Amino acid sequence: MLKKLMAAAAFVALFSWGTAAQDARTVMGNASKAMGADNLKTIEYSGTGSDFALGQAPNPGAPWPRFIDKTYTRAINFEAPASRMDRIRMQGENPPRGGGGQPMIGEQPQNQTIIVNANTPWVQQLEIWMTPYGFLRAAASSNAATVKAQTVGGKKYNVVTFVGQNKANVNGYINDQNMVERVETWIDNPLFGDMPFEAIYTDYKDFGGVQFPARIVQKQGGFPILDLTVADVKPNAPVNIQPPQGRGAAPAPAAGGQPPAATSQKLADGVYLILPAYAALAVDFKDYIVVIEGPQTEARASAIIDEAKRLIPNKPIRYVVNTHNHVDHSGGLRAFVAEGSTIITHQINKPYFEKVFSLPHTLGPDKLTQSKKKPSFETMTEKKVLTDGNHVIELHHVLNSGHNDGLIMAYLPKEKILVEADSFNPPAQATAPPPNPVSVYTANLVTNLDRLKLDVETIIPIHYPADARKVTKAELMRAVGQVN
Description:
The protein is of the alpha+beta class. It is 23% helix and 36% strand. Residues 1-20 and 247-256 have low confidence and may be disordered. The longest helix has 34 residues, at 2-35. It has 2 domains: 19-235, outer membrane lipoprotein receptor (LolB), chain A (Clam), CATH 2.50.20; 263-479, Ribonuclease Z/Hydroxyacylglutathione hydrolase-like (Metallo-beta-lactamase, Chain A, 4-Layer Sandwich).
C-alpha cells in the first residue's frame, strides 16, 4: 500500500511539474508573439537619461549619485550572444555630491562590451538576459521554467521563473497585455550580499513591428542605477560586436576574483604601505596591528591581511580604520571582521554597517558567513587618537566634504604621513597640469589641512598611482594650482 501511495504521489508531482512547465511555455510563447520577439535576433536601442553610481552616495541614507547620459546606445545580438553599450556621460550632481568619479569635467565617453563565453560572469550576462527579449530566450532555454499567477499592487501578472547561473531565481512579470513589465533577480555583492537587481519596463510602443518599452529603469540595492528614455529602436539591425581594443571599456561590476599580489613598502619604523591600489597602511603597535582601509572585496582584504601579518608577525589586527562607507572602500571589511578586527568608522556609519552586515550572503558565502562572528565598532565624530606611547595615529573628520559626509583621514604626526581617500586622486604623472576647474574635493582637503594645521610631507592616497611613486604635499598643492 505504501509503495502504491508513493508511486501515486510521484505521478502527481510529475504531472503537476509537467503542467506548470507547459503553462510556462505557453505564457512565454504568448508574450514572444505579442512583443514581436519570435524572429528577433538583434536589437539596437538609443535614448537619453541618467545612470547612477552604485554604493557611492554622500551619506548612508541617500540614493546613488546621478550622472547625465547625454547619449546612450545599446546593441544586442541574442544569438551570439553579445552586447555593446556606448554612452556620453556628464556631471549630474551640482554641486558634486558623492563618488563615482565626481566631479566630472566635460563629457565622458564610456563603453562596455560583453561577448558571452564559458568564463563570462553571470552578472555581466544579465545585461542581455534581463532585457524583455533576452529574458524570454533565457527562460525558454532553461527547460525548467515555471509560472505562477501573482497580484502585485492590485495588478495581475504571470510570473515566469528560471534559475540563473549563480543559483538565484530570475523572475519575469508578464502583464495581461503579454508584455514583460519587470525582471528581477539577485546578485552577489561583497558588501551588500544577496543584492536585488531589477529592471522595470513601461510605456511600450511599436518600433518596426516590435513592442519595445519607451522607458527603462534598472535598480540595484533598492536604488536606480539607470533611468533611460528610449527614442529609437532598430529591430534586427546589423550588429557587429567585437572585443574592445585598448582601454576605455566600462569597469565590470565588483566581483570576488583574485586581485594582483600584494606588495609593500616600508615608510618608517613600523609603518608599511601595502599596494597595489586600493592602498592600505599597516602600523605596528606594541601588542597589535592597525590597518587603515579594508577596501574592495574579500580577496583584496585577505591579501592586505596576509601582507600585514607577514610584515608584522605574531600580532593580531585589532583595528581596521574605514575612511568612509562607499562600497569600494568598505567591501573588504567583512574579511577583517572574520579576522576578529574592530572597525573604526564615523558615527553616522554605524547603523548603516550594522544593517548591511546582517544581510544574507547565500550566493557567495564568505569568511564572515562561515565564521559567524559579529561585527564590533568604535566610532568617532571629529577626532580620535590611537597610540601605544610610541606610534600615534590621529583620525580626523574631513569637514564639509562633498564626497562623503563621514569621510575620515588619518595622520601620523611623527612620520608626517597623511592617508586620505578620494579627496585627492593623483594623476598618472606627477607633473600633470591641474584639472580645470580644480576639483572641489581636492580644494576641500587643502582647506582641512590648513584648518587642522597638519604638517604633511607624504600623502598616501587610497587610490594610489600605478607607478607607485611617492606622493608629496607639493604634488597636492600643484593639483589645486598652488605651485611654489
